[in-house]
Amino acid sequence: MGKGQLGLSRRKFLQVSGAAASSIAAGGLFNTVKATASEHSTLNSSKGKETFIPSACGMCVNKCGLVAHVVDGRIEKLNPNHKFFKSRSMLCARGNAGAAEPYNPDRLKKPLLRVGKRGEGKWKEISWKEAYKLAAEKLAELKQKYQNRSSVAFVSTEGFQEEFFNMLSTSYGSTNTVRHPTLCLASVIQGWSSVFGTYPDADLTEADFVLMLGANRAESFVTPDTIDFQKSMPKKQTLVYVDPRFTSTAAKSDKWYAIKPGTDLAFVLALIHVIVNENLYDENFVNKYTYGFEDLVKLVKQYTPEWAEKECEIQADEIRWIAREYAKYAPRSVVYPGRRTSWYVNDVYFRRACAILTAITGSWDEPGGIVPKSS
C-alpha cells in the first residue's frame, strides 16, 4: 500500500507508533508505581473512589503478594506486588481470577442447617450465633459419647481459613483433617519434614543438575518456582525428567524416562544404592549432620538397579548414570520436591527417600541445591 493511500509516510508511521508505544509503557509503569506506592493509597478518578490495598493471594499454597485495585469498595482487579520477592513480581491467571471469588453467586454467606434427610438438599439459613452454639454442643456431645476425639473430622478448603481449621482440630484433639494438602502437598511435607524438619524449596536457578519426578513445570499453573525453572533453562544445566507421559517438560529435558506409574520409590532407592555402594556420598556432611547412615547402607543393599529395572522399567545402566551424575554435581544437584504429590499409598516414603538422597549428597542449604523453606 503506497503513501498516497493512507497519507502516512514510513518515517511518520515510525514516529507515531514509537510515541504510542512509549505512552503505553508509561501507562503500565504508572499503574505499577501507583499500585505499590503505599499500603493504602487512595485517589478519586472518573471511575469513583480508587483504593490500592496490598494483600496475599489465597488461590493456592504459594500465597503470592498482590495489590487489590478497589473501586467504590469492589475489587476491580488484582495486580502483582513487586515489593514481594517470593512471587517474582507476577500473579498468575488463577490468582487474577481470585478477584471474582468474593462475588460468586453460589458463595455461601450465611450458615445453612440441613432440615431434610441426607442427600435431599433441604437446608435453612440460621444465624452465626446459632451455628456456633450448635457446633459446640455437637462436638462436646461426640467427645463425651465416644471418648475418642478422632471420631470427628475437620474439613476446609484451600486458603488462609484452613490454618484455623487445623488449629481447631488440634485443640479438639482430632488427627483427622481433610484440607488442601490432603490431596496435594501432604506427602511431600511429611516426607521431607521427617528428614529435615521442614518442607523445602529448590534453588533451580543455580542448580547444575535437576531431577524432576512427574513435576510438569513447563505447562502446569505458573508459580514462583515455575519462573525459576524457566530462568534456569538457558543455563548449561542437566535436566532429567521422569514421567510416564511425554510432556512439555519432557520435551525441554536432556533425558526423559517413561517410568512405570507408582514405582518412583523403587527408582529413588536404587539411586541411593548406587551412591552408597560406589562411595559417591558426601562423607563430611553424612558424618557431621546425619545419623543412622549405617542402617541406611544395610537397607538399600537389596535395592539394586537391576531390581529397580524390573519394578519401574528404567534400564539399570540408566539408573546408574543418573545416580552418578547427580552425585557428581552435588551439592548443586536438585531432586525437585514437587507439589500435588499425594497419589499412591507409598508417597510419603517416596518423598522421604528423595530427602535422604539430598542428605547423603550434601545438597542441603547450599546454592543450587535444596534450601530450607523461605517462609
From TrEMBL:
Name of protein: Molybdopterin oxidoreductase
Keywords: 4Fe-4S, Iron, Iron-sulfur, Metal-binding, Molybdenum, Oxidoreductase, Signal
Upper classification of the organism: Bacteria, Pseudomonadati, Deferribacterota, Deferribacteres, Deferribacterales
PANTHER family, alphabetized: TETRATHIONATE REDUCTASE SUBUNIT A, TRIMETHYLAMINE-N-OXIDE REDUCTASE
Gene3D superfamilies membership: 3.40.50.740, ADC-like domains, Dimethylsulfoxide Reductase, domain 2
Listed PROSITE patterns: 4FE4S_MOW_BIS_MGD (PS51669), TAT (PS51318)
InterPro entries with a match to the protein in the record: Mopterin_OxRdtase, Mopterin_OxRdtase_4Fe-4S_dom, Prok_Mopterin_Oxidored, TAT_signal
Keyword Membrane: no
Domain 4Fe-4S Mo/W bis-MGD-type: 50-106
Pfam families for this protein: Molybdop_Fe4S4 (PF04879), Molybdopterin (PF00384)
GO MF: 4 iron, 4 sulfur cluster binding; metal ion binding; oxidoreductase activity
